[in-house]
Amino acid sequence: MTAAEFREHGRAVVDWVADYWERVESLPVLSTVPPGAVRAQLPASPPESGEPFPDLLDDMDRVIVPGLTHWQHPGFFAYYPTGASGPAALADLLASGLGVQGMLWQTSPACTELEQHVLDWLAGLIGLPERFTFAGTGGGVVQDGASTAMLVTLLAALHRASDGQVARDGIGSGRYVVYTSTEANCGFEKITRITGLGSSAVRFIQTRADLSMDPEALRAAMAQDVGLGFTPVLVMATVGTTSTGAIDPVGLIGPVCREYGAWLHVDAAYAGVAAICPELRWIHAGVAEFADSYATNPHKWLLTALDFDACYVADRGALTQALSVLPEYLRNGASESGAVVDYRDWQVPVGRRFRALKLWAVIRWYGAAGLREHIRHSVALAQQFASWVRADERFEVLAPHPLSLVCFRLRGDDSANHELLDAVNATGRVFLSHTKVRGAFALRLAIGGTATRREHVAAAWALLAEHASIARHRLGRGDQIDAVSPEIG
Fold this sequence. Notes:
- Keywords: Aminotransferase, Decarboxylase, Lyase, Pyridoxal phosphate, Transferase.
- This protein has 489 residues and is α/β, with parallel strands linked by helices.
- It has a domain at 100-353: 3-Layer(aba) Sandwich (Aspartate Aminotransferase, domain 2).
- It is built from 17 helices and eleven strands.
- 45% of the residues are buried.
C-alpha cells in the first residue's frame, strides 16, 4: 500500500468509524446471529491474490457488524464500559502507524518517557501518593488489563516474600497463600494458577453487610494460616468489585497486611478513575498509607479504549527484580547507566506497543475538567436510575451504588427476574447483565458509555417497568402499581 493509497483508504476507514458511531444507536445492542453464522459467510481459504480495500469495508457492513455486540451503543449497560472515543481511536492509529516496539528505552526513548510522564499525570489526577510516581520509589506501567496487573504484582510479592528464591527456583515446596474478597475479580484465581500457586492457595474472605471485605475475617484467616506454617504473600483489596461495585476498606485492610508482612495490591480497575473527581476521592482512603501496588483501567470509564490498564508500584525494584532477564543482545549503555526505565522488565511480554499515546491524547483533548464531567455525568445518571427503582414498589435495590453501577431486582422469586432480563435484552434497545447478591438473582445496570445520556437511561427504565408487569402477570402476580415514568429527553 503506497502512501497515496493509505491516504485514500485511511480517510475511508475514518469515515466508516465515524458513520458507525453515528448509527450504532439504530442497531440492536446484542448480536442476534446464531453460532457459526459469521464463519459461514467467510471464504474457506484465504485469497491467492490481493483484494481491493473497499471490499473489506463492504464485508465489515455485511459480515462483521451483524455479528457484533455493540459496546459503544448508548443502551449498553451490561458490563463496565469500554470507553472508545475519537482521541483514543486516532492515537491508536498513530501508534499502529509508528510501529514502535518499546521494550527498551533505547528502542524508542519517546515511547518510554511519554508513558512515564502520562502515568505520573494520571496518578496526580486521581490522588495517588508520590511514591507511586517516578518522582518517588515506584512508578506506573501500562498493562493490557487488570488481570495482568494482578499477575505482575503477585510475582513481585512472591519475589519479596521469598527473598528472590521464587524467581530462581520456582514455587517449589514454598507454602504461600494469597487473600481476596469473595466478591473480587475472577481473574485473581486464574493468575494464581499461572504463577504456579494454584487455586488452593487462594483464601476468599467473607464480606460485611455492604459487600466489602471483612478486615477481621481477613486477620483471622491470616492468623490461622501462619499457625499452620503458611506464608501470607499478598492481599488483593478491590475498589469497585465487578459484581456489585463494592469498595473494600483499604484503610482497615492495610494494617492487617503489615501485621503479617503481606503485599497489598489494590484492584481499582473499574472505579479508580472516579477519584479524578475530588468529591469521589474517598474511594482511595488508605491507598496512600498502605498499598504496595495499585491498578485502574482508563479503558473502562475514562474514554481511552481497549486495552489500557495503569498499574502502579511503590517499589519498582521488587517488580523489576522479579521479571528482569537480560540476554546479551539487549545490553546497551543507557540501560547499564541506570538512568532510564526499560519497560520490558515491568511486564510479562518483552515487546510492547506505544499505548501511552491513547491516554495522552484523551487527557489533552478532554482536559481534567472534561474527564471529571464525564465521570460525574455517569454517577448522576446511576443515582437517578436508582431513585426510579426505589420509587416503584415492585422493585428493590440490592447493593450500595455510590458510583455508576446499580444492582436491583423485582421483588419475589428469581424466575420473574430471569424473564424480565431476557425480555428487555430481546428488544435490542438495551443490554443488561445479571449477578447474584447474597444468593439472590439481580439485574446489573452499569453506566459510563461515551454516548450514553439521560434519555437512554430513562428508556431503559421504561422498558424494565413495562416488561416487569408482563413478567409478574405471567407468574400470577399481577398488580396495579404505577411505575415511575420519567420524562425522556
